[in-house]
């Protein structure tokens, strides 16, 4: 039997195959070079449409959000400036920010879009 290929680092699928110098996962379409050190995908935080976020970015809320203890919601289109990313957040809220009118809070990256 030939050498076993490593599982996909993105989805842990065991059905990886070689394509030139790259390894490819047929289940999630992730491609990687096994000879290079990889940046873990879990450390990269993306917004709802796939843009990579960084500390200090400005984002726009794309979904109305109810906030406990406040009579009004955070409305769609609210801009949030100077975000701080919190990788490996246990509760899934990976953005720490200050929302005008609401104060300091945490948001999920899946409900914001980066302002380009």
Automatic annotation (TrEMBL):
Name the InterPro entries on file: YjdM, YjdM_C, YjdM_N
The record's section on Pfam families has: YjdM, Zn_Ribbon_YjdM
Q: Which Gene3D superfamilies match?
A: 2.20.25.10, SH3 Domains (2.30.30.40)
Would you identify the family this protein belongs to, as annotated?
Belongs to the YjdM family.
Name of the molecule in the record: Alkylphosphonate utilization operon protein PhnA
The species this protein belongs to is: Aurantimicrobium minutum
**In the record, what lineage is assigned to the organism producing the protein?**
Bacteria, Bacillati, Actinomycetota, Actinomycetes, Micrococcales
């Amino acid at each position: 039997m030939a050498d076993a290929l490593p599982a996909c680092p993105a989805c842990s699928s065991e059905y990886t195959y070689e394509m030139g110098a790259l390894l490819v996962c047929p289940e999630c379409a992730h491609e990687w070079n096994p000879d290079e050190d990889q940046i873990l995908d879990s450390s990269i935080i993306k917004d709802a449409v796939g843009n990579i976020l960084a500390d200090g970015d400005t984002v726009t809320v794309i979904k109305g959000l109810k906030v406990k203890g406040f009579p009004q919601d955070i409305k769609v289109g609210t801009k949030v400036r100077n975000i701080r990313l919190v990788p490996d957040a246990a509760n899934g809220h990976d953005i720490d920010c200050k929302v005008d009118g609401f104060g300091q809070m945490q948001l999920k990256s899946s409900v914001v879009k980066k302002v380009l």
